[in-house]
Write a structure and sequence with these properties.
Order of helices and strands: EHEHEHEHHEEEHEHEHEHHH
Number of strands: 10
Bound molecules: 3-hydroxy-3-methylglutaryl-coenzyme A, magnesium ion
Number of domains: 1
Distance between the termini: 34 Å
Structural class: alpha/beta
Shape: globular
Strand order of the largest sheet: 1-2-3-4-5-8-9-10
Helix content: 25-40%
Length: 297
């Protein structure tokens, strides 16, 4: 068991956190959320998407959000599902993008209208065409469970991750899209993936639907994984994963890391204050247990 000394937190609230909401959050409010979270010490944001506005209307203003952020020294990442997304992300000046496939065909078809094989080839083209200076993170969604096909084969997920790295992705993030995995599933997944994907280029993106995200985070830490997505206030879900709730709350993740003496460079209480205020302003449920406890103390 070798816990990492520090964890790199990727903040997903303005992208994963908001993408499923029906009521459109104004561009200025999204940018203000990123600015306020940047002031807490967060430096890396899964900030926006360059997907079809017909599929996900909430994310239609990706370029405008990026232009409106004023925080210095932050990385703003954008989700890019195809070449049109790449063009738009480059026009917006992004230097970091997320490309995506799922492990299962059914979810992938519902999410990005492509089989796994088709999306792998889309990703290959994006990697080839993206300017060299752009950092590319490849998500493998439904890494343990698909909402339609059930449990996934860890060997297949490892194969996808390994292939994406061979093709030139800089990092691979395992998406536990519907939050169904228990530590048993995480252990099984990481046992397989870490034989083929080096731990220093592996991240996890854990949804908390069944309340397992912190337990699963601990399994990832035990394996030395040091890159973790989270969402302030526990905001989020995927519009094409019925019933899935948000990522592990950033506050809950930071509380765990603080308790274990693992560094992260972020002020936990300030994240809770920012996220609680954002939720109150937009009539959203504030979903961090650690945050609620801290703010009540
Ligand atoms: P499609 O309908 O097959 O696309 O959708 P198409 O290529 O046939 O084009 C149809 C129309 O969309 C055309 O416009 C294109 O120009 C336009 P028209 O001629 O009809 O006016 N279009 C675009 N517009 C803007 N940006 C684009 C773009 N591409 C085409 N990039 C597509 C395919 C991939 C576009 C669609 O399925 C899509 O946008 N899906 C995204 C869904 C999404 O955002 N899901 C949530 C994010 S994934 C997630 O949350 C999981 C994650 O968090 C990890 C985890 O939890 O596991 C990352
Ligand atoms: Mg997600």
């Amino acid at each position: 068991m070798s816990f990492p000394a520090t964890v790199h937190v990727v903040e997903s609230s303005s992208r994963d956190g908001l993408q499923s909401l029906g009521a459109i959050i104004p561009t200025e409010a999204k940018a203000a959320l990123i600015d306020a979270l940047a002031a807490t010490g967060i430096t890396d944001f899964d900030a926006v998407s360059f997907v079809s506005p017909k599929w996900v209307p909430q994310m239609a203003d990706g370029a405008e959000v990026v232009a409106a952020v004023t925080a210095p020294n932050v990385t703003l990442g954008g989700l890019v599902p195809n070449m049109k997304g790449l063009e738009n992300a480059m026009a917006a000046g992004l230097t970091s993008i997320g490309v995506l496939t799922a492990a299962s065909d059914t979810f992938n078809e519902k999410n990005i209208n492509a089989t796994v094989d088709e999306s792998m080839h889309r990703i290959r083209r994006i990697i080839l065409e993206a300017p060299e200076a752009v950092t590319i993170n490849a998500y493998v969604s439904t890494a343990t469970h698909c909402p339609f096909e059930g449990e996934q084969d860890p060997d297949w997920v490892a194969h996808l991750g390994e292939t994406l790295l061979e093709w030139g992705a800089h990092t691979v993030t395992l998406g536990e899209t519907i939050g169904k995995a228990t530590p048993y599933h995480m252990e099984r997944l990481l046992g397989e993936v870490l034989g083929r994907v080096p731990v220093d280029v592996l991240g996890v993106h854990l949804h908390d639907t069944y309340g397992q995200a912190i337990a699963n985070t601990l399994v990832a830490l035990e394996h030395g994984v040091a890159k973790m997505d989270s969402s302030a206030g526990g905001l989020g879900g995927c519009p094409y994963a019925p019933g899935a709730s948000g990522n592990v709350a950033t506050e809950d993740l930071l509380y765990l890391l603080d308790g274990m003496g693992i560094g992260h460079g972020i002020d936990l209480r300030s994240v809770a204050e920012v996220a609680e205020r954002f939720c109150a302003e937009h009539n959203l449920t504030y979903n961090s247990r650690a945050g609620r406890a801290l703010l009540a103390a």
